[in-house]
Amino acid sequence: MTNSTKPSPRTAGAQQALLIAFFAIAFVAAVLGLLKWQGASIPASAVAVACWAALAAMAGYAVLKRSLTAWILFAMLLGATAGYYFPDAAKNSRVLFQVFLRLIRTIIAPLLFGTLVTGIAGHADLKKVGRMGIKAIIYFEVVTTIALVIGLASINISKAGVGVTMPAAAPGADQIGTVPKHSASDFILNVFPENIAQAISQNQVLQVVVFSILFAIGLAMVREDKRRPMLTFCESLTEVMFKFTNIVMWFAPFGVGAAIAYTVAGTGFGVLVNLAKLLATLYVALIIFLGGVLFPILLMTGVPVRKFLKAVAEPATISFATSSSEAALPRAMEAMESIGVPRQIVAFVMPTGYSFNMDGGTLYLSLAAMFVAQAAGLHLSLGQQVFMMVTLMLTSKGIAGVSRGSLVVLMGTAAQLGLPSEPIVILLGIDQLMDMARTTVNVVGNCLATVVIAKWEGDFGTEKPSPAAAEGAAQ
């Protein structure tokens, strides 16, 4: 989440000073702690004073920044420190992140229903677009499936979640389930709902998705005067759930701080090391995806590489800085038109890709879901990982516009697979750093998709870009 207004020069200077102070003091605290751990005669009080001083600097930064991301980072650090110095009190903080989890779970079904119905029935002009629509959907599914596979392979190699020992659940709390073993017939049967209310109450996310897809197809087939009221309702439902999600996310600092405090109090600082490994795994996996999948596709399309990279540089930079695909959308559409993609193809493929072609997002989801399984100490067989991939492939559609939407998808997937929710809340502590990278890959992937579809249609370079697009590209 970004600030809606630009801070004054004085405020910006104070923010920068506090951030520098935080890093400097945190570095001192880390050095003192390391020396004490190695046996040096460093007073424990000196380490404690440095830790709390660093937290004070971060608190001041968060107050001035007035950003949800800053508060989540502060809460993560505060939770880790409080969990270490006040373990008894921290162990009683579990109720806060249980409340947060319950609020998130209420979002899953209505949000998936609204986004999927709007995304599918709202593009009823697929009949008119015909061949282009089919090609786009096939391309989206193939590329996102490859992204899922790369994510799974990366986390299986790095094993970033292995060694995260979650504290024992309190009596009466949600228990860690076991991953269900599905035969082929069980899997097929479990996909289709017999009672949608029951599917929602039991967190059967795949059944909710299938119902939503079939409902959307049926809605797209009725007359316009019958379709429009229901489509308007679903669009309104989606907007309301976006706002609902934003409201719930303001409770995220409390949930994240409590989850970190509870975990550190029970198991120590090991979870922070695992989060760093997960962050490194994600960045390496995204680089592999860019270089091993998207770049070869770019070469095969025959588009001048330098021309494409120059055009996509600005949208990618915007998305990385803002962690928002939507912020980069107007410039991305303009940039693709400027290199020869006809406007009608850009107007269809780019917005559709924002719902169905989240390359970076789907790679992250597979990686994060396996991290949760590893943190729970659960071994997933190949068949169970395939089942997880199918679940993620379906539940991730249409969620791109939701703030911290990956959390909603992960929560639904965890419920479907019987995985614990606690590690998902902990992931919010580094979500901003992960979101910057995965959002950038989303934007680059959608820009490339417009070029691929234009090439397949034989329309690339057949129309001159509009003066506005050409002017924007020249800036």
Instruction: Extract low-pLDDT stretches.
Output: 170-180, 468-474
Termini distance?
27 Å
Number of strands: 0
Average predicted confidence as pLDDT: 79
Concise synopsis of the structure shown:
The protein has 22 helices and no strands. By secondary structure, the protein is mainly α.
Q: What are the salient characteristics of this protein?
A:
475 residues, mainly alpha, Proton glutamate symport protein, 2 domains, 0% strand
Structure in words:
The protein is an all-alpha fold. 77% of the residues lie in helices and 0% in strands. The protein has 22 helices and no strands. The longest helix is centred in the middle third of the chain and has 32 residues, at 270-301. 48% of the residues are buried. Mean pLDDT is 79; it is low at 170-180 and 468-474.
Question: Helices and strands in order, then pairings?
Answer:
Elements: H1 9-37, H2 44-65, H3 68-85, H4 87-90, H5 94-121, H6 126-129, H7 131-158, H8 184-191, H9 196-201, H10 205-221, H11 224-249, H12 252-267, H13 270-301, H14 305-322, H15 325-338, H16 343-356, H17 359-375, H18 382-395, H19 405-417, H20 422-427, H21 431-456, H22 467-474
Helix pairs in contact: 1-2, 2-3, 3-12, 5-10, 5-11, 5-12, 5-19, 7-13, 7-16, 7-17, 13-17, 13-21, 14-15, 14-21, 15-16, 15-21, 15-22, 16-21, 17-18, 17-19, 17-21, 18-19
